[in-house]
Amino acid sequence: MVEEHGIVTAIDKSGGVWVETQQQSVCGQCAANKGCGHKLLNKLPSRQVVSASSIKVRSDYSLQVGDAVVIGIPENTLVKGSLLVYLLPLVFMLFTCWLLKWQGYQEQVTILFGFVSLFLSFYLLRKIINKTSFQQSLEPSVLKVLVPIQDTESPLVTSL
Description:
It holds the Pfam family RseC_MucC. The chain is of the alpha+beta class. The protein is built from 4 helices and 6 strands; from the N terminus they run ββαββαααββ. The protein has one domain.
């Protein structure tokens, strides 16, 4: 489960809540720490600004604006979405090029129809993503509600 901490900023009438998360830089935490170019770019003063983003999430909890929560999305959903977005257009284009070359078409025709199939795969991808069931599977949900304890600075975690 991919998790992120956030603050509830609004309650939606449809049962969802809007959660604001702080975008964290992941540089310095992976195995390619010393050889990564992103680490050097993030050292620039203009890149060190942490930005906040707001996202609508599903919630089974009774929440109020200002509650600290942990939201999450299943890893398999993230992998499926990434494969679909990155792999489907590439497979479409390569398969079309291979098929046309196998049929003996000229290289210019193969390249042209390769790009046509690439753009058709983007259209197909858009249709797949716009399906309600697929969108619901990509929607994150509230996993835990963090309740602050008055005497200590660290929050207590509660869950269902």
